[in-house]
Write a structure and sequence with these properties.
Elements: H1 6-18, H2 22-35, H3 41-55, H4 58-65
Helix pairs in contact: 1-2, 1-3, 2-3, 3-4
């Protein structure tokens, strides 16, 4: 379809999170982070932080921040 942007992957990641599909959540949020521009970068990081606080340990959250 050609639609490939950070906002889309950010929203899909949140949908997966609320559906408790955590493996897909992190994949989508990491893709959103890779595609993010300055105008949506803060939204992606906010959602990564929220998901990390709810689902994973501090060590995993620190590993996620090392990806950029």
């Amino acid at each position: 379809m050609g639609v490939n942007n950070a906002e889309l992957y950010n929203n899909i990641g949140l949908c997966c999170f609320y559906a408790q599909q955590y493996d897909m959540t992190f994949n989508c949020l990491m893709r959103a982070l890779a595609l993010a521009t300055d105008d949506c970068l803060a939204d992606v990081w906010y959602n990564i932080g929220h998901v990390a606080l709810v689902t994973v340990t501090v060590a995993t959250a620190a590993a996620l921040t090392d990806t950029q």
